[in-house]
Automatic annotation (TrEMBL):
NCBIfam families: dsbE (TIGR00385)
Domain of life (superkingdom): Bacteria
InterPro entries referenced in this protein's UniProt entry, alphabetically: Periplasmic_diS_OxRdtase_DsbE, Redoxin, Thioredoxin-like_sf, Thioredoxin_CS, Thioredoxin_domain, Thioredoxin_ResA/DsbE_sf
Keywords carried by this UniProt record: Cytochrome c-type biogenesis, Disulfide bond, Redox-active center
Chief location: other
Gene Ontology CC terms, in alphabetical order: outer membrane-bounded periplasmic space
Annotated Pfam families: Redoxin
Subcellular location field: Cell envelope
Family per similarity comment: Belongs to the thioredoxin family. DsbE subfamily.
Name listed for the protein in its UniProt record: DsbE family thiol:disulfide interchange protein
Gene Ontology MF terms in the entry: disulfide oxidoreductase activity
A biological-process GO annotation: cytochrome complex assembly
Domain Thioredoxin: 34-177
Length: 178
């Protein structure tokens, strides 16, 4: 009996190592979202550049659009900003920003310092409630919303040209043709 018990710690260590190595094989960008295929959470938020203008998902009903969650304090948002600027110039789908838990003045200055504003509008989510409703893990995150107002796709992390061309653009084109 004592000989059999002697191998339990080794067996447990092997099992833990196997679980650890299986976890390393997973793509960290593929965070699950229970919202795929479900309606965009309702919100009514002020625009970053005009507090008298309200932004709601209903404004984009019947259109395919992208919601990019960003903040001036976000390092990864700097990485994707040039990509978003280029995207805004030649993209048919509207690009809407969700400025997450940020200071309005800092956010406006950040857009100037970064070379421009890629967003058609940028909603201000200072409390983070809309981000919670979206299940935000961190910024940046980008959502594709279909013509029916349902979330079709969620991209976590800084958007790059390769993933945009290979993952997002084909889906956007498919949704626009439906």
């Amino acid at each position: 009996m004592k000989k059999a018990l002697r191998f339990w710690p080794l067996a447990i260590l092997i099992i833990l190592l196997a679980v650890f190595f299986l976890g390393l094989q997973k793509d960290p960008r593929k965070l699950p979202s229970n919202l795929i295929g479900k309606p965009m959470p309702a919100f009514n938020l002020p625009d970053l550049h005009d507090a008298n203008r309200s932004i709601t998902p209903n404004q984009y009903q019947g259109k395919v659009w992208l919601l990019n969650v960003w903040a001036s304090w976000c390092v990864a948002c700097r990485q994707e900003h040039d990509m978003l600027l280029a995207l805004s110039k030649n993209q048919s789908a509207s690009l809407i920003g969700l400025n997450y838990k940020d200071n309005n003045v800092a956010a406006q200055q950040w857009l100037v310092d970064m070379g421009g504003n890629p967003y058609q509008y940028s909603a201000v989510d200072q409390t983070g409630i809309t981000g919670i409703d979206l299940g935000i893990y961190g910024v940046p995150e980008t959502f594709i919303i279909d013509k029916n107002g349902k979330i079709a796709y969620r991209y976590t992390g800084a958007l790059n040209p390769e993933d945009y061309q290979n993952k997002l653009l084909p889906l956007i084109e498919k949704l626009e043709n439906e």
